[in-house]
Design a protein that fits this description.
Layout lengths: L4 E5 L4 H12 L3 E6 L2 H10 L6 E5 L7 H13 L4 E4 L24 H29 L2 E5 L4 H5 L6 H18 L5 E7 L27 H7 L10 E4 L9 H8 E3 L8 H7 L6
Parallel strand pairs: 1-2, 1-4, 2-3, 4-5, 5-6, 6-7
Antiparallel strand pairs: 7-8
Helix pairs in contact: 1-7, 3-4, 4-6
Bound molecules: nicotinamide-adenine-dinucleotide.
The site of nicotinamide-adenine-dinucleotide has 29 residues, from helix 1.
Length: 279
């Protein structure tokens, strides 16, 4: 690996914070991105072992955010080798009781639709597009997108979060194919169910034992961002199904499946839509 410079978005809290700390411990230099400067300061304080951390408070919905992140990252730790898109917002910004009283799609204003897509889909596209050319030029790179379970994408009451994560998942599958043969891989990592974070209000305080610990993300993310996972691309991994005591190749096989919904694409449709290869 040319560099251990790793951008983690949403690093201030929850799954992103757990992954940032785990990656630091594994020796990555982490560029921690979040909109909340106080959470970033707390992360910096907690980061005791391994690589170095540099924090940047930025709102990922701003169109110049990717440019600022790339410039900051390169100045701190050199070319970006790995990108983890973890920042997200969901139905909790509409209703604290969304899990028990589903939000009907027609009650959600277009401003909320756009905001949830801006964080969960637009910002992911923007950052991926910004880091990819450099990764291709260096012949190595890693992109990990945190989407959600396939059930959540289509569960009643989960619009616009479900559709925004579905867009992210489809983008991840396409990027993995567009990047075939470049040394840059794209995979999806999800906790595998509801996790104990701010996104699950109502449960995180009352029934935390029913929720997945954010720490389950650490063993898979460390392996997925390592040289050992060269060639693994276009997959989605469920962190709670990853057995940390197993050989990582076997753990990846057990917890992984192709990203998105390839089973729904019929052979004829694939042939019709396959772009013609130029000579
Ligand atoms: N908690 C779950 O059950 C669960 C399940 C599946 C997937 N996820 C996904 O995991 C990811 C992490 O979520 P979490 O559960 O840790 O939630 P969280 O709210 O604890 O963390 C999300 C982080 O993203 C940051 N963020 C949000 N909008 C931002 C913006 N515009 N600019 C910069 N930073 C921004 C927040 O400040 C926060 O620190 C999300 O993408 C979420 O959709 C969560």
């Amino acid at each position: 690996m040319a560099s251990r410079s790793t951008v983690v978005t949403g690093a201030g809290r929850g799954l992103g914070r757990a992954m940032a700390l785990g990656l630091l411990e594994a020796g990555h230099n982490v560029i921690a991105i979040d909109r909340d400067p106080q959470e970033l300061a707390a992360l910096e304080h907690a980061a005791k072992r391994g690589g170095q951390v540099a924090c940047l408070a930025v709102d990922l919905t701003l169109s110049d955010s990717a440019k600022s992140i790339l410039a900051f990252a390169e100045q701190k730790f050199g070319p970006v080798a790995c990108l983890v898109n973890c920042a997200g917002i969901g139905q909790e910004i509409i209703s604290a009781t969304f899990a028990t009283e589903p939000v009907k799609f027609w009650t959600v204003g277009e401003d909320i639709w756009k905001l949830i897509f801006a964080v969960n889909a637009d910002a992911v596209f923007r950052l991926c597009a910004a880091v990819t050319p450099g990764m291709i030029a260096r012949g190595w790179g890693r992109i990990i997108n945190v989407t959600t379970s396939l059930e959540t994408m289509i569960r009643p009451g989960m619009s616009p979060y479900g559709p925004a994560k579905a867009a992210n998942e489809a983008l991840s599958a396409i990027m993995a194919k567009d990047l075939q043969g470049t040394g840059v891989t794209v995979n999806v990592l999800v906790p595998g169910g509801p996790a104990a974070t701010r996104m699950m209000p109502g449960f995180v305080d009352t029934a935390p034992e029913k929720l997945i610990s954010p720490d389950v993300m650490v063993p898979p993310i460390v392996w997925l961002l390592s040289k050992a996972s060269d060639g693994v691309t276009g997959q989605r991994f469920r962190a709670n199904a990853w057995k940390a005591d197993m050989d990582p190749v076997e753990a990846a096989r057990v917890s992984g499946a192709p990203a998105a919904w390839p089973g729904l694409a019929g052979g004829a449709a694939q042939a019709n839509y396959a772009p013609k290869q130029s000579a």
